[in-house]
UniProtKB/TrEMBL annotation, chains A, B:
Pfam families: 4HBT, HTH_DeoR. This is Transcription factor FapR. Belongs to the FapR family. Residues 11-47 form the HTH deoR-type domain. Keywords: DNA-binding, Fatty acid biosynthesis, Fatty acid metabolism, Lipid biosynthesis, Lipid metabolism, Repressor, Transcription, Transcription regulation. The gene is fapR. The lineage of its organism: Bacteria, Bacillati, Bacillota, Bacilli, Bacillales. It comes from Paenibacillus sediminis. Transcriptional factor involved in regulation of membrane lipid biosynthesis by repressing genes involved in fatty acid and phospholipid metabolism.
Length: 203, 203
DNA sequence: CAATAATTAGAACCAGGTACTAATATGTAG
DNA sequence: CTACATATTAGTACCTGGTTCTAATTATTG
């Protein structure tokens, strides 16, 4: 093995570090910093699975684009296909390009949450319904193109004002991908005062 | 002037729009969409001051890099203003028209959740970080125009892979409006398999 | 010493351009 | 109708930052 010019694994580690803290470095510059030929640099990149400069920039650019695309989700998430007020409800939400991380195709958590939350709120038959708290589990990741079917069940109610417990399960086919317990605050709408929060029913 | 092949200013406007909604388009593709020669496309880009594809990608990549400097400025909802990996982070998110119920001006829960969730994920210094579960409370409702300041603290970590507990508090001014405990699954990225979920870290 | 691993060299090729020159429409004003 | 101006297209040379492939040259080690 090499002894003078720094052992290979060590050099590769350095290469990794250099690129990590400056992704815009060219192979040309790397030869200067690591004192090896450009071919060696390229072999190293290959072995380490590091793409070329342009590909690295492209990936970063895509990531920054994702940020912009993720914001404009205002309306109620998912399509409600069944609703029995104060009892249960079902909604469908298909994962599209704008809902996933472009690199992995995995859906962003807040979209899955949003569908469930929207449904939990919709199922409550009050002028105003806001999520007070929630306890949620992402059972498995959801991929681009998958159809999420959320089912909500009202587990308990306390009077015309007060709180309601709603349980939501989200499925892709037979598989459960998400589960959550929502505590929904219900009000007639006279005042949306303190000690409570998020979300009302219908727009 | 041209009459058949669509007047120049109109074509340039279209070009601008196409690039705006898909910055990754090549001149080659633009010729197909606008039905003019590649030279015309390039003259148009010149006149409009639109740089070439690679330059556009580079700029996007740079922007995403120096927003928080260092890579981990992910798919964060809200603007990250401080980030100490594996320790803590702060982000700001202003509630605008598109985030509220039009009738009441109350912010929809999933936006508040999204900010907190994004930050909880961003603060974890791993290739992939996904929300496994969360326990959240909406303390009080947030109104249109209010600035939400989310603060995340890593409470515990278990090795390089495994789970991390992150606590997030969101404030409007002095008031706490949201609080959540997130269990984040961390992985090196070899496989984003089962039994886990949402959200990854860096690209 | 021969076999193996690591490194270097070099040439061909590629995408997605820039820069520049020149020819060819297409109008429009006089 | 002609002259001139503006638009559009064509074509070539060149650039960066690579990939791919073949081959030669150094170690290194068993």
């Amino acid at each position: 093995m090499v002894i003078e010019r720094l052992p290979k694994p060590l050099r590769q580690q350095q290469l990794l570090k250099i690129i990590e803290e400056n992704p815009f470095v060219t192979d040309q510059e790397l030869t200067r910093q690591l004192k090896v030929s450009i071919q060696t640099i390229r072999l190293d990149r290959m072995e380490l699975g590091i793409p070329e400069l342009r590909e690295r920039m492209k990936q970063m650019a895509e990531r920054s684009l994702d940020q912009v695309r993720s914001l404009p989700l205002d309306e109620v998430i998912g399509e409600v296909i069944d609703l029995q007020l104060d009892k249960s409800g079902i909604s469908i939400f298909e994962i599209r390009e704008e809902h996933v991380f472009s690199r992995t195709g995995i859906a962003r958590g807040h979209h899955i949450f949003a569908q469930a939350n929207s449904l939990a709120v919709a199922v409550i038959n009050n002028e105003i319904a806001l999520t007070a708290s929630a306890d949620i589990r992402f059972v498995r990741s959801v991929q681009l193109g998958e159809k999420c079917i959320a089912k909500a069940y009202v587990r308990s109610m306390s009077g015309k004002k007060g709180k309601a417990k709603v349980e939501v399960f989200t499925y892709v086919g037979e598989e459960m991908v998400f589960q959550g317990n929502f505590l929904i605050y219900r009000s007639t709408g006279e005042e949306y005062s303190e000690g409570v929060s998020q979300h009302e029913n219908r727009d």
